[in-house]
Backbone:
């Protein structure tokens, strides 16, 4: 899925002197407080990290609130969706006017009716709401469906996404994967069929050219 990236970073973490007895735990608490929040320094939402330091000794910095700094080397997993990127998420709610999705378990996304392509019709079957394609009846979007959609915008403060299903490569992920496989098989089958039915009598081989050349010389 797009929107995810791994970044290497050299960090300087400032800790209170009272934390000097257990620096490792203090670093863990400090970095964990940044999880699932947009960070301008990292240019993304921090999802996971691994960090190490070779030296836990640091000079206490003077000031009104004294602290000491610890330098770290960190590897960060970031979520940074941009417009036109393709994301996946699970449908948690839908209605005639919108589809609501959760991405990676923490970010919400909304797709409003004007961003749902016309082939999808809203229906209620056996008390369940769903969107069904008029082009392919097996292509359905309902609660718990994992959908692929295109990013329109991302609110860094609320971590809310606005998405679109107007593009043909969006919709039910399971259906899209199956459709792609069937399309590939059908394409290969058609190529074999075309090759088998082709008139090969018109093809001239190198041996045919040599024979004709000899006949001409004689």
Residues:
């Amino acid at each position: 899925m797009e929107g995810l990236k791994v970044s290497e970073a050299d960090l300087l973490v400032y800790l209170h002197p009272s934390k000097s007895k257990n620096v490792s735990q203090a670093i863990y608490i400090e970095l964990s407080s940044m999880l699932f929040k947009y960070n301008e320094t990292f240019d993304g939402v921090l999802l996971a990290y691994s960090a190490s330091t070779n030296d836990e000794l640091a000079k206490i910095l003077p000031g009104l609130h004294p602290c000491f700094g610890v330098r770290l080397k960190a590897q960060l997993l970031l979520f940074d969706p941009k417009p036109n990127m393709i994301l996946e998420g699970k449908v948690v709610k839908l209605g005639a006017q919108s589809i609501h999705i959760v991405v990676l378990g923490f970010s919400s996304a909304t797709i409003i009716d004007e961003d749902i392509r016309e082939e999808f019709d809203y229906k209620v079957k056996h008390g369940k709401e769903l969107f069904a394609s008029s082009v392919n009846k097996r292509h359905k979007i309902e609660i718990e469906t994992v959908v692929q959609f295109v990013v329109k915008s991302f609110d860094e403060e609320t971590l809310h996404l606005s998405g679109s299903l107007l593009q043909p490569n969006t919709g039910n992920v399971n259906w899209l994967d199956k459709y792609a496989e069937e399309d590939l098989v059908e394409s290969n089958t058609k190529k074999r069929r075309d090759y088998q039915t082709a008139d090969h009598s018109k093809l001239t081989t190198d041996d045919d050219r040599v024979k004709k050349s000899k006949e001409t010389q004689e």
